[in-house]
Design goal:
Blueprint: E1 8-11, E2 14-17, H1 28-32, E3 35-43, E4 46-47, H2 50-63, H3 72-85, E5 91-98, E6 115-122, H4 128-133, E7 135-141, H5 156-167, E8 172-177, E9 180-184, E10 188-193, E11 196-199, H6 210-222, E12 226-228, H7 233-237, E13 241-246, E14 250-257, E15 260-261, H8 273-289
Helix pairs in contact: 6-8
Bound molecules: N-(5'-phosphopyridoxyl)-D-alanine.
N-(5'-phosphopyridoxyl)-D-alanine binds near residues 183, 187, 188 and 207.
Length: about 290
Amino acid sequence: MQTIPDSLCFLNGSFGPLAQAKVSVLDRGFMFGDGVYEAVPVYGKRLFRFNQHMARLDRNLAKLRIANPHTHEQWLDHCRKLIAAQAADDQLVYIEVTRGVAVRDHGMPTGITPTVFIMTNAMKPASPEQRHQGVACVSARDFRWEHGDIKCVSLLGNVMARQVAADAGAVETIMFRSGFLTEASSSNVWIVHEGALLGPPKDEHVLEGIRYELLRELCEEEGIAYNLRPIPEADVFAADEIMLTSATKEVLSVTTLDKQPVGHGALHGKPGPVYAKLYQAYQQAKAVQSI
Ligand code: PDD
């Protein structure tokens, strides 16, 4: 059995040790995966892009018709208490809201109280080797459902997608639906073509990562063209650079896809110049934007 960290967490209005936190077996999150979550990075004990994470939580709760159980100030307060109690300076705060506890029946029950859970753990950043060499990815058909835009805890499709990479000794699985790039199991995917950063459109097949808007801002600062458009599979395999973004990966260069080196010429299989610029700009954003 794994050892559960002895850290502080928040559950339904109270703070207590993570190992002792318990929810009902009839919780809709346990029964149906009926809930949403957020993963918010923390640098130097300060939350990064917290307002944007809260805005996405609001949008996702509304999609599932769950009323937001806390005000913005309450969320901030709870998160800051947990961050202060955790030893690490850089952390990842995990927030989950489920519909709550009800007798098992598929339809959405009304008049029940949402379950609220928050924990924070030390951030596991990409290793120096991964930063220096980039990471390996594999490709797969996107076999998940058609609501990839909802950041919900029903993540079995994503779990299965990630295992495709794990079984191949790779970091992520880059997925294609009907011949077009969607995303990876827990990251957004970007390509570089003729110096421009290209990402898939924000539609129902892709989670709108908080880094979608952040990368747009960083590209503007760095003078890199940024464009969202459908990206055919062949363009990904022919890309000059491929990158992943997520709360934990920040921006991470993909240097092999299905064991083939990414890129051309001297940069074949090496992290490229657009990655290098965006990574540096990201580090500056962390320093100035965390609250
Ligand atoms: N995952 N797409 C999927 C399917 C994701 O699960 C994530 C994040 C992203 C990137 O979103 P953001 O930039 O907001 O982190 C894209 C988080 C980290 C997780 O599930 O732990």
